[in-house]
Write a structure and sequence with these properties.
The structure is a homotrimer of 259-residue chains.
Chain A lengths: L1 E6 L6 H13 L4 E6 L7 H11 L8 E5 L10 E6 L2 E6 L5 H6 L4 E5 L14 H14 L8 E3 L12 E3 L2 E9 L5 E6 H6 L7 E4 L2 E2 L2 E3 L10 E5 L4 E6 L4 H5 L6 E5 L1
Parallel strand pairs in A: 1-2, 1-3, 3-5, 13-14
Antiparallel strand pairs in A: 4-5, 4-6, 6-7, 8-9, 9-10, 9-16, 10-15, 11-12, 11-16, 14-15
Helix pairs in contact in A: 1-4
């Protein structure tokens, strides 16, 4: 069984290596792939979006271990969850709520059986002391039922949906990638539901796009455009440049679509 | 067969994880090693230099997947190429042109057979939707001939060569590493051809080196020196410091050698 | 046998990939895990602390390859060392001195047998040309005795210990993590030896903590607190914020404990 890791520790953090060391000590042949460790510190929403975008690209049955855990050491639960064909270990703080929005979990177990944990559990690093050893034991074939007790439902965060009204769609910037592209919460489904045509125009930070294209190559360098991105969302981009830089845009900024 | 990945997505980008997820879904036992994901955005030349420097360190037969692809979604070709004992999947935009300069490719195939691709191909992320699944299928033993049609030749970028004249070598800074060392396009072969002796002096950004050494330890902290670096190129360095910082040097800056 | 890599090359550096390529060329089935590549350039102390904190989390017998090597190309030794249940390859410059402080090495060999090295050894990159191939050969079962000659003892760096006097503990900031937490050299053992109670107060950069908690969740957002961190050290933290940012603290800053 494949294991993946998503954290907010920062790529190259020794904390990531500590988790891998614990996993490999229990299951030396475990195969561990990094999803990302560059979730902004304690940004549960960002982690939830990455999980939604990437987790299901992995083989069925993959176990995704996610640690964005500002509540570590409090009474927040740590859970094992099955959602679709994939499995997850995470704090129950909303980190799985994008995935659970799309498809209800078929099984949730609260981790309470400490025999699967490290003998000594710190108060500040449950990723290493609880989730990593539990993940390794699961990958060795431990029955999830042995991990703890059934857990009724996951904490769900509110995710503002785009609004369609009066010939407009109001959405916002969900995240910004390394190229400075603004990924919005306006999906192709929303565009279709609103009957938006190919002549759509987006406005963000008081700047308006020049045209809507199928790929970057259909516009000229420097053009401010919209394009359907690789997650089936409307992206705002500057060809061969950075939309985030030009607009000084940030996550959460409002995006208005007209057509 | 080993797979490597080189992209400009940024280390820790979820886009990298998406490519790995696709590969592992098709070939769960695939072994994937990161070459680097820190190619500056859309900097084909930088990617080409890293491939030249590192790819052949890997075992013969390794398949290197390279994605620096500003033309994604246009008519630029995606190709499979065999160069020396190694194999490559990349957009045909010059990314393989340093390797191909040293040794002509023995086989080039343009990827046209969509049965090896993801069922749904986005217009903006062919790394995930075409190159990743093709790589996984190749690693499972698919015959390269089945991937598409023969492709005549690779796009070659112009790479300015150092000039030797009037007792001088004129070269430039090829890249700058994390230590602030300036790696030049002046190779040991060029130095030998020009008959340069051990008393060479380099000038860059109006600053002149103090001496040429065999290793950093032969100079004192703070000395501005030249040394033959690990890629058999002339490097300009400040011992225990940063040459790039002291000179405010940038990639492409002119370097003059006298002796 | 598992191999890990720790360097100061920077995550995503092609130099890291070059080392992996060399290892995999010699032992294609080698399993290599990154400890971290974000050791600040040439910061031997930082590397030594990470090794102490993380190396022993890995399975017994793991071979850790560490490259923070400002003296590359000088007469400094490269060594193979056995410390506890783990094995190490590193320059003998203090990089292993935190580990060796806790437990004396049971075996040290200076690498002198060049038949295990790359045929051509550069003067500036012994990580790639000596340590990587030696690691790969060890993982294939080569007897460590064949690597070179016995080496008497490791270079030890001085590590200032916290001082307990007059109802105070004087320590300092050992490192700062991504969350801005200040990890000190004051361990739980030191606190116990001094008889410090749960009402301890820490002062750093002229700012004093509000309270000592068992976990972040026991304090309010913005509180400046102390907590026993995941390495059994006293950490100074701002809940949901950055202590390093608020205090403008740096590694080495003095920390005073009263109670």
């Amino acid at each position: 069984m494949l294991l993946t890791l998503l954290t907010d520790f920062g790529t190259g953090s020794p904390y990531v290596a500590a988790m891998k060391g614990v996993m490999l000590s229990i299951h030396p042949a475990a195969v561990i792939v990094d999803l990302t460790h560059d979730v902004p510190p304690q940004d549960i929403r960002y982690g939830a979006l990455v999980l939604e975008d990437v987790a299901e690209r992995f083989p069925r049955g993959t176990l995704h271990v996610a640690v964005v855990d500002p509540g570590v050491g409090t009474s927040r639960a740590l859970v094992y969850a099955e959602i679709g064909d994939h499995r997850y270990l995470a704090p129950d703080n909303g980190l799985l709520s994008r995935l659970a929005l799309r498809q209800p979990p078929t099984r949730i177990i609260r981790l309470t059986e400490s025999r699967w944990w490290l003998p000594k559990v710190s108060a500040t690093f449950h990723g290493r002391d609880i989730l990593a050893p539990v993940a390794a034991h699961l990958s060795l074939g431990v029955d999830p039922a042995a991990l703890g007790v059934p857990h009724k439902e996951l904490v769900m965060l509110a995710w503002p949906q785009p609004r369609i009204a009066a010939g407009q769609i109001q959405g916002h910037v969900l995240w910004i990638d390394r190229f400075g592209n603004l990924i919005t919460n306006i999906t192709v489904e929303v565009l279709a539901a609103a009957g938006v045509g190919p002549n759509l125009v987006a406005t963000c930070c008081e700047k308006t796009t020049l045209r809507h294209v199928r790929s970057y190559g259909q516009a000229d360098a420097g053009d401010f455009i919209t394009v359907i991105g690789s997650s089936d969302r409307l992206d705002l981009a500057v060809v061969d440049g950075s939309a985030a830089g030009r607009l000084r845009a940030r996550i959460g900024d409002r995006v208005t679509i007209t057509w």
